[in-house]
Write a structure and sequence with these properties.
Pfam families: Flavodoxin_NdrI (PF07972). The chain is α/β, with parallel strands linked by helices. Helices cover about 35% and strands about 20% of the residues. It has 4 helices and 5 strands; from the N terminus they run E-H-E-E-H-E-H-E-H. Strands 2-1-3-4-5 form a 5-stranded parallel beta sheet, sandwiched between helices. Helix 1 crosses helix 4. The longest helix has 21 residues. The protein starts with a strand and ends with a helix. The relative contact order is 0.19.
Length: about 160
């Protein structure tokens, strides 16, 4: 893999996702400084004020789980607060560039853990490639970065999965 970049599109309601992806961006910089074949990371945060754009490069979507009503398993689900991200990812042809979804949540919610990310992956016809809890750990940062790096390299080699 040459001088490629990992593009991340995310939403952060309480700051956990933003903290994780900015920490991963810092990690990528140190990895790139040690070996410039390691990709850097660019971030795009989607908010209610975001202007929708047409994506032209592959990206990974980071999706926290926020539910309001239903358990998402047998009595429905009401998505809470991440809808604008879903609308952005489905805008025009944006979904075709999504290389995978990374989910976060609180493991205390059992089957609902990363439920939103699993639903987004299905909706975008891609895979949920990784998860982490709350703000993640240094081990999560390295693991998720490597999963994205490998998936991007496979995409660049094949232009498909």
């Amino acid at each position: 893999m040459s001088e490629s970049t990992i593009n991340i599109i995310y939403i952060s309601i309480e700051g956990n996702t933003r903290s994780f992806v900015t920490g991963m961006q810092d990690y990528a910089k140190t990895q790139h400084a040690a070996d410039d074949s390691n990709p850097l990371i660019t971030l795009k945060e989607i908010t209610e004020q975001s202007d929708f754009a047409i994506e032209t490069e592959p990206y990974f979507a980071f999706v926290p789980t926020y539910l309001d009503g239903g358990n998402g398993i047998d009595n429905g689900v009401k998505e809470l607060m991440t809808n604008v991200l879903g609308e952005y990812l489905n805008y025009d042809q944006n979904s075709r560039f999504c290389l995978g979804v990374v989910g976060s949540g609180n493991r205390n919610f059992n089957d609902q853990y990363c439920l939103t990310a699993r639903r987004y992956a299905e909706q975008l016809d891609t895979d949920m490639i990784a998860d982490y809890e709350l703000r993640g750990t240094a081990v999560d940062t390295e693991r998720v970065y490597n999963v994205m790096k490998d998936r991007l390299a496979a995409y660049l080699d094949n232009q498909t999965f």
